[in-house]
Amino acid sequence: MNISSADFVISAVKPAGYPPPEFPEIAFAGRSNVGKSSLINTLVNRKSLVKTSRTPGRTQLINFFLINKAISFVDLPGYGYAKVPEAVRKTWGPMIETYLSTRDCLRGVVVLMDLRRDPGAEEVNLLDWLQLHQVPAVPVLTKADKFTRIKQQLRRQLIAEALGMAPEGLVLFSAKSRLGKDAVWGRIEELCQYGK
Ligand code: GDP
Known about the structure:
Order of helices and strands: EEHEEHEHEHEH
Low-confidence stretches: none
CATH superfamily: P-loop containing nucleotide triphosphate hydrolases
Strand order of the largest sheet: 1-3-4-2-5-6-7
Largest sheet: 7 strands, mixed
Structural class: alpha/beta
Mean pLDDT: 91
Strand content: 15-25%
Number of domains: 1
Radius of gyration: 16 Å
CATH class: Alpha Beta
Number of helices: 5
Bound molecules: guanosine-5'-diphosphate
């Protein structure tokens, strides 16, 4: 994908604060520290369009970006960070669910999971929720560079089994080596019918 522009648009909490639904939209969701900022920055060839959070869980807003003045990217707040106060954590679920269930221009959600971790309840719940609401999911396994190629395949197989999915449906990704960048873009282009 040739990136001609990548701009921050706005941060929002509630639907009233979302930008107008002018463009096909792709959201990115995952546990704090999973590598979400790094993945988005890699996709758009920018070092720090999305700030990589030194303090995981600090980004508690829904952040909207516009790519090539044609596709909207949405960085959803990372979930599951233990040090966040319970009161704050309680607002995350509803904030994300409200976004996912009300956003008409949403074409799909990139669901990030760390290749080193077995999927937890958050990941399973999110994927089930998306399926139930017929929102396409693009499952991506991050930090693949932490493993050899053989071990990458084995971990993917195990995670796919845990999720009841076909291994080929899970994209192996590394922000370090850029493995999987084209595959993720391919899925996004398909969902947005853009760039082909
Ligand atoms: P976020 O909290 O999900 O946005 O995660 P970040 O993108 O800020 O990354 C969290 C940490 O994981 C940082 O220390 C990154 O350098 C590291 N990281 C992110 N992606 C990769 C990757 O593909 N490979 C490796 N080895 N580390 C990564």
